[in-house]
Design brief:
There is one protein chain. By secondary structure, the chain is α/β, with parallel strands linked by helices. The chain folds into 2 domains: 107 residues, Translation factors (Elongation Factor Tu (Ef-tu), domain 3, Beta Barrel), CATH 2.40.30.10; 168 residues, Rossmann fold (3-Layer(aba) Sandwich). Helices cover 19% and strands 30% of the residues. It has 6 helices and 17 strands. The strands form 4 sheets. A 7-stranded mixed β-sheet has the order 12-11-10-9-13-14-17, with helices on both faces. It has a 6-stranded antiparallel β-sheet with strand order 6-5-8-3-4-7. It has a two-stranded antiparallel ribbon with strand order 1-2. A hairpin with a 5-residue loop joins strand 1 and strand 2. The N terminus is likely disordered.
């Protein structure tokens, strides 16, 4: 079960209330800004109405509640190393996500969490670190990359392989350029469908893995995207020699309760909301190879 999070809350006369915060209890957050990233993807910046900002680890998610509409699990996409608004990058794909991204500045949402396991970026210290993202899968990886860049000198080569549907669907374009220019991240981007003005790569992100510049024997790989894409990427990484236990995938199954009670996200013996969402490929490989599991 997810443990209580020891956030500190300001008490009376500036005192600190250090009682633990129950992640199951929704807290009211106000939308301070909504940024449109692509034609159907938006980032919400949320500020707590009372108490401190939520503390979280890269890779964790919250349950966001659009009051009167519903609640959905969304990975946190902000920087876990710096204080600031709680960020969630959301694709407009359903009734609840549409209500979230359409809510006006100042609207109040409910936030439960944080829930789930983290990327544990520090396990890559002294190693090459490879990020592989498909589509909006870059959003859950963004906190891990920002955590790494805050301690860039502790890591060797950093590689980001990113696949999007079209050039217009590329997330965080300005940041991709900044990460490459200012932090020495090797950024490779490919799209499924390139138009006439596109001069970059066209093809699947899996095609970038065999020729990417990293030492597979000394690499931590973090992967997030559609489940089929992750299965093929993980196979490509292990084929290159990355050990299965150092390939980590973020599973995005249909989570509901966040604490392993409802069974919506069950993957045979695993409950993604509790055992995941980030799991080693060594544990997932036999499950991902089973059809309709």
């Amino acid at each position: 079960m997810t443990s209580l999070i020891d956030n500190q809350r300001p008490g009376r006369a500036g005192a600190i209330d250090d009682r633990p915060v129950d992640p199951m209890v929704p807290r009211p957050y106000r939308i301070s800004r909504t940024r449109q990233d692509t034609r159907d993807t938006f980032t919400l910046e949320l500020e707590p109405i009372d108490g401190p900002l939520l503390r979280y680890r890269a890779g964790q998610f919250t349950m966001l509640d659009a009051f009167g509409v519903g609640e959905v699990p969304i990975s946190i996409s902000g920087d876990p190393t710096r204080p600031g608004p709680l960020e969630h990058t959301i694709r407009d794909v359903g009734v609840v996500t549409h209500a979230l991204i359409a809510a006006p500045t100042g609207a109040v949402l409910g936030v439960r969490g944080p829930f789930g396991t983290s990327w544990d970026v520090a396990a890559g210290e002294g190693k090459d670190v490879v990020f592989v993202a498909g589509g909006i899968g870059l959003a859950p990886l963004r906190p891990a990359l920002m955590e790494l860049l805050a301690h860039r000198d502790r890591y060797n080569r950093v590689v980001l392989l990113y696949g999007a549907r079209t050039p217009e669907d590329i997330l965080f374009g300005d940041e991709l350029r900044t990460w490459a220019k200012d932090h020495g991240v090797i950024v490779e981007v490919t799209v499924d469908n390139g138009q006439h003005a596109w001069r970059g790569r066209v093809g699947l992100v899996t095609q970038l893995v065999p020729r990417a510049g990293f030492d597979p024997r000394n690499t931590l790989a973090l992967v997030c995207g559609p489940e089929t894409m992750m299965r093929y990427v993980a196979a490509a990484l292990t084929d290159r020699g990355v050990p299965e236990h150092r390939v980590r995938l973020s599973m995005e199954r249909n989570m509901k309760c966040g604490v392993g009670l409802c069974g919506h996200c069950q993957l045979r013996e695993l409950f993604v909301c509790v055992d995941g969402p980030v799991l080693p490929y060594s544990r997932l490989a036999p499950l991902l190879s089973t059809r309709e599991l």
